[in-house]
Amino acid sequence: MRVVYRGLAVVGAVAAVAVALVAVLPSGPDEVAAGPVTAPPAAPSSSGPAPSPVPTVTHTPSPEPSLAPGYTAMEALYADRRVPRLTRKVKRAALPKPPRRVVKDARTGLAVPDMPRPWKTYGAAPFTSKQVLPRKRGASLRGMFVTCPLPIMRQKSARDTALLAARWTLNHHPQGSKITWLASQPVKHGWSLIYRVKYGRHQSRAAVIVMDGGMSKPGLAFVTVPDSQRKQWRDIGRVVAGVRVLG
Fold first, then answer.
1. Mean per-residue pLDDT for 157-170?
2. Where do the record's region annotations for Disordered lie (predicted)?
3. Angstrom distance (rounded) from CA 27 to CA 25
């Protein structure tokens, strides 16, 4: 009889272990047993919906206004709060005489003023020519005068092309910059714009000249001078007056 009782005890123990295993193991394909956490499958299983992945939060800087799908370049420009409409109230500027010496830029087909001291020639990249003012102690910005093939889409009118070019130059001003138009006028083979760029309590004076120099793309001349070097603001008019087609 003792043997029989021992046999029954063993059978009972095995049954208890089996019940415990049933309680621990998942009862269906949609349940996840405890264990290492793995990435959810790329596609849901045919036997049931896959667990929803935990969203990942990433922080990226806010992009500048850009050309949205379905919008033209000019529509994107008009939607940009940093760039006001250019109205007829913006008049021509009285331009001074430009410097006699020029810098010849074969890539753009333009000849531009070789600005006198304190301006100096500097390494051009990523532009095709570059002149700068010396850095002023305590100031992060300095005057810059550059040329390059037009970096934006050419429009039917030189005026509209210049507007887009001015908007593009905000990439080379502090974040949050906004434009105020000071002068607008045609130039031979193109258009010029003079404007103020305000950022916080500071500002720069700037100008763009878009001109067809006979290359595959029009040439762009761009000059900007911060208020820490305001004595050179007068040079902006000299730049506008001096840009011409090479030849």
1. 98
2. 36-69
3. 6
The answer to whether residue 206 sits within a structural domain is yes
- Does 101 reside within a domain? yes
pTM flag (> 0.85): no
Give pLDDT, residue 67: 54
Residue with tokens 């990435």: 39
Distances (CA, A) of 173 to 118, 123, 124, 126, 147: 21, 19, 18, 16, 16
Question: How much is the mean pLDDT over the chain?
Answer: 81
Number of structural domains (the chain) is 1
Query: 């193991």: which residue's tokens?
Result: 25
Residue type, 184: S
Q: Which residues pair with 129 in a beta bridge?
A: 147
- One DSSP character per residue, 90-157 reads S------PPPS-EEEETTTTEEEE-PPTT-EE---TTSSEEEEPPPPTT-S---EEEEEE--SPPPSS
pLDDT confidence of residue 138: 87
Tell me which residue range forms the domain holding 142: 73-245
Contact indicator for 224, 205 with CB cutoff of 8 Å: yes
Per-residue pLDDT tens digits for 135-159: 998 889 999 999 999 999 999 999 9
Sheet strand arrangement including 244-245: 102-105, 110-113, 244-245
CA distance 194 to 209: 9
Where residue 147 sits, what CATH number does that domain have? 3.40.1000.10
Residue 213 lies in a domain: yes
Q: Which two tokens stand for residue 240?
A: 């506008």
